[in-house]
Amino acid sequence: MPRKALTESVSDLNAAPGGAAAVDRALSLLCAFQPGDEALSLAQFAERTQLYKSTVLRLLASLEHARLIRRQDDGRYALGMEIARLHGLYAASLSLDRIVPPVLRALAATTGESAAYHVRQDQGDSWVRLCQFRVDSSHVVRDHVRAGDLLPNDRGAGARVLIAFGPEAERPRGTRERKLYDAIRTQGYCALVGDRTAELAGISAPVFHADGSLAAAVTLTMPTHRYDERYIEPVRAAARELTGQV
User: Which domain range does residue 48 map to?
Assistant: First the structure.
């Protein structure tokens, strides 16, 4: 009878209800890869999944047969070509038009304010802030930005987030601005009143790709008299919902 591990494995702790334990364990090996990993050793797999090395070897053999894993000459294991094929199919079926607007509509409905999805758009040696998607507030008094509009890249909560979580080399070096962007990165959002124009307030949070790189900023805008700190968490929640999907 096989020994029971003293410490529960990652797959045991996150087992799929009604699923197959062997599949959960195999998938835990794929999930063991982290950003920056080119390949993993048998010992690294065992440490990260809390599975016996003998179990890891059997699972790796199946994953290698399915081309989800490939064994390198140095004995370590890297992701296989089947991962690239599946990613290509996923990317081809992915459409931001189906993913982003529903999240923005929910955010606008929750807060009653205008929700937007801002991205960096390179223009030669510089960049501009593009409003890629937008859902308007139901209030009569609101700002009138439209999807496709280009906005300042150095003012407004959305711009500040794109700077704070973008390339470090592009962040301003002044002491005051450095403190601002450090604070945004630490707290994970930016909330400003009267930054782009005196009459507007904004709350913005970063959206990340699956590899951890910056994808966009989810931004809520409103007249300054309707600014409410309680909107910060819904904005952050919307950004978290989109992270890894775009």
Answer: 10-91
